[in-house]
Write a structure and sequence with these properties.
single chain, alpha/beta, DHBP synthase, 9-stranded mixed sheet
């Protein structure tokens, strides 16, 4: 298992409303505190992404999502399938509770969530004390970076902290599926 980098600068940046970059399962991600509207608005501006599309929340443990998801709204078999897929590279759109802000869900009733097994993500979420926004570290429409040296220089200069490390080696970003129907939205 690779060593976990020093997370202190990233956690400090998150706590003061900053945007950070960190390795995920397949690509580098941008993240911030999902409950800090100014931080999310800044992240969206950096990505040139509209708020109505919604954002993914990433957690290091299922308990970090408690109170945010309406898992009881899922059919029992779908509920069991979602929970059995975590931790792992599986993003699900699940009905959101009213605790999830509209700047996260966008124009959707659900929220995209993933409980990661990536050791750096797990450590980052644990140190922060909850889930983070997780979106690829690229301007909208550009190829997401798989290595830190492939990062868009302007974007890299605009963020507040970088968590060193390697991506998990997946060949493509995580799948996104609708938890109610099982339909794959991104494979």
């Amino acid at each position: 298992m690779p060593a976990i980098p020093d997370l202190t600068p990233a956690i400090a940046a998150l706590r003061r409303g900053g945007v950070i970059a960190y390795p995920t399962e397949a690509v580098w991600g941008l993240g911030c505190d999902p409950f800090d509207q100014a931080a999310v608005t800044r992240l969206l501006a950096l990505k040139q992404r509209p708020v109505d599309k919604g954002l993914i929340l990433i957690a290091g443990a299922r308990a970090q999502l408690d109170g945010l998801l309406d898992l009881d709204a899922l059919p029992r078999d779908r509920h069991d399938t979602v929970l059995a897929s975590w931790p792992g590279p599986n993003t699900w759109i699940i009905p959101a509770t009213t605790k999830v802000p509209r700047w996260i869900t966008g124009d959707h009733a659900g929220v995209a969530v993933r409980v990661s097994a990536h050791p750096t993500v797990v450590a980052l979420c644990a140190a922060f004390g909850g889930p983070l926004v997780s979106t690829s570290a690229n301007p909208a429409g550009a190829e997401p970076p798989r290595q830190l040296d492939a990062f868009d220089p302007a974007l890299r200069d605009a963020i507040d902290a970088i968590v060193e490390g390697d991506t998990g080696g997946l060949s493509s970003p995580t799948s996104i599926r609708d938890a109610r129907s099982g339909t794959t939205l991104r494979s």
